[in-house]
């Protein structure tokens, strides 16, 4: 497709596009820290704030709901009302959550704060909109840089929270405060990002989408705890699917929409979104199982290495660092090897990671090789799918297209986590998952990675995009 006014935006005098990319990467660090520091903190907060396991599961559910619901809302607002103003509002939302939990750690502030933190889902779609306007030729490089920083700060966030909150868990919340302040200070370095459409968002499909995602995600997230035949699961899941069908029908057939789903007529949008779903299914959903495996003692469970929470967080840096390297290399791989080969390769590397984990799980060095491969596959797909998700899409829908890809990732993660929980429940032994259950999880996630590769094989570069990802 051709360019429009958005691609005519200039970077303000005195700032290069490189400066803009660095600022974006540092802003994305806030996203990585907040996504990395919650998981190790919540279990440790149980005795301090009188939070039981059921409440912790509820807090995780709130986080999943926030990610799913806010993704299309924030990205669509960016296209309609301007990328930089909506980005600033998203950062303020996250900063409010960060400060609230740090200043007054309590059950209610943690619940509110976790929901506010999900505002990070808009960072990448909004900054991609700015970058596509100000420097379309640097979109892939910018996305790779942002994802590289995201990957490394997810691991660093968990480790820092564990170190700072080792004796007083609530102090771990302060880890994210300086990153929130820095992100707010960096927003003025970014250009406006083109002329917003000022289109009014349709309320009915917005509500249908938001409530539908709420019901669907709740059913998948709580099915293992409530029981898959529990009336609450059936009711929330059924209503969620029905409302999502209403949303899809309205946004596919009317001019006045919430999310313009006509972009799915483009083959690369369908392929990249489908591959992203399977990538999410096969990757992020394994992180909790990885912690369980490393924490377990082989003498009692039959597997594991008996590591502490801090040791597990330190070991996860292997994933973060290999993801960091893979993300930085993605731009070159897309240019040299091609888009299809890069996407397919990411799935094959993930599949190999689970094969190595399964075969060498009795050896810590061998398992670490599997983790390194896992990190490589993670970084490759995180950077490549996000860059390719918007290529060939009308510039006025850049954030929306990126948001749809983020939503596909979130849903893939939720479905993958539900399947992992289902397998864990089916292979219980003495109250813990059995070795056969772990093998079943590895095989299932490897199959998901293969499905991502098979989906990616259908990718065809848009005719209006050059091999460097620049619109003709």
Integer average pLDDT: 88
The CATH topology of the largest domain is given as Growth Hormone, Chain: A
Radius of gyration: 21 Å
Gap from first CA to last CA = 7 Å
- Topology pattern, helix = H, strand = E: HHHHHHHHHHHHHHHHHEEH
Mind summarizing the main beta sheet? 2 strands, antiparallel
Global geometry: globular
CATH superfamily of the largest domain, by name, is MFS general substrate transporter like domains
Number of E-type strands: 2
| Number of contiguous helices | 18
| Beta-strand fraction estimate | under 5%
Looking at the overall shape, the CATH architecture of the largest domain is Up-down Bundle
Give the structural class: mainly alpha
Count of discrete domains: 3
CATH class assignment of the largest domain: Mainly Alpha
Task: Trace the largest sheet across and list its strands.
Answer: 1-2
Helix content: over 70%
Low-pLDDT segments: 1-8
GO molecular function: transmembrane transporter activity
Transmembrane segments: 12-34, 54-74, 86-104, 110-131, 143-166, 172-190, 202-221, 233-250, 271-295, 307-329, 341-358, 407-427, 439-457
Main location: membrane
Domain Major facilitator superfamily (MFS) profile: 20-464
């Amino acid at each position: 497709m051709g360019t429009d006014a958005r691609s005519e935006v200039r970077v303000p005098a005195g700032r290069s596009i490189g400066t803009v990319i660095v600022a974006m990467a540092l802003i994305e660090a806030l996203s990585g820290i907040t996504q990395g520091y919650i998981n190790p903190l919540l279990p440790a907060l149980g005795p301090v704030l009188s939070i039981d396991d059921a409440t912790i599961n509820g807090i995780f559910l709130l986080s999943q709901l926030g990610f799913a619901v806010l993704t299309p809302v924030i990205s669509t607002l960016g296209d309609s009302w301007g990328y930089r103003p909506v980005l600033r509002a998203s950062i303020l939302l996250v900063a409010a959550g960060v400060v609230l939990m740090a200043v007054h750690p309590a059950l209610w502030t943690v619940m509110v704060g976790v929901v506010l933190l999900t505002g990070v889902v808009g960072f990448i779609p909004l900054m991609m909109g700015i970058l596509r306007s100000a420097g379309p030729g640097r979109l892939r490089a910018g996305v790779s840089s942002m994802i590289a920083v995201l990957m490394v700060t997810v691991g660093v966030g968990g480790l820092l929270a564990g170190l700072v909150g080792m004796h007083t868990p609530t102090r771990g919340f302060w880890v994210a405060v300086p990153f929130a302040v820095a992100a707010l200070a960096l927003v003025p370095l970014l250009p406006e990002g083109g002329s917003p459409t000022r289109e009014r968002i349709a309320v009915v499909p917005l509500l249908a989408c938001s409530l539908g995602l709420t019901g669907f995600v709740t059913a998948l997230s709580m099915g293992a705890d409530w029981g898959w035949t529990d009336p609450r699961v059936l009711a929330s899941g059924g209503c969620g699917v029905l409302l999502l069908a209403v949303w899809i029908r309205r946004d596919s057939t009317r001019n006045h929409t919430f999310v313009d789903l006509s972009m799915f007529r483009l083959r690369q949008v369908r392929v990249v979104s489908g591959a992203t779903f399977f990538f999410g299914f096969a990757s992020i959903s394994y992180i909790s199982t990885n912690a369980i495996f490393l924490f377990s003692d082989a003498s009692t469970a039959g597997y594991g290495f008996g590591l502490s929470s801090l040791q597990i967080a330190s070991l996860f840096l292997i994933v973060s660092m290999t993801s960091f390297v893979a993300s930085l290399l993605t731009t070159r791989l897309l240019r040299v090897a091609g888009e299809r080969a890069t996407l397919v390769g990411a799935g094959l590397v993930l599949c190999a990671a689970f094969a190595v984990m399964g075969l060498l799980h009795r050896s810590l060095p061998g398992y670490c090789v599997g983790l390194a491969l896992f990190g490589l596959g993670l970084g490759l797909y995180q950077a490549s799918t996000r860059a390719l998700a918007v290529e060939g899409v009308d510039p006025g829908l850049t954030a929306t297209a990126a948001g749809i890809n983020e939503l596909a990732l979130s849903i893939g993660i939720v479905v993958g986590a539900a399947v992992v929980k289902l397998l864990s429940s089916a292979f219980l032994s003495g109250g813990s998952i059995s070795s056969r259950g772990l093998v079943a999880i590895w095989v299932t996630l490897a199959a998901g990675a293969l499905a991502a590769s098979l989906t990616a094989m259908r990718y065809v570069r848009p005719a209006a995009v050059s091999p460097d990802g620049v619109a003709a």
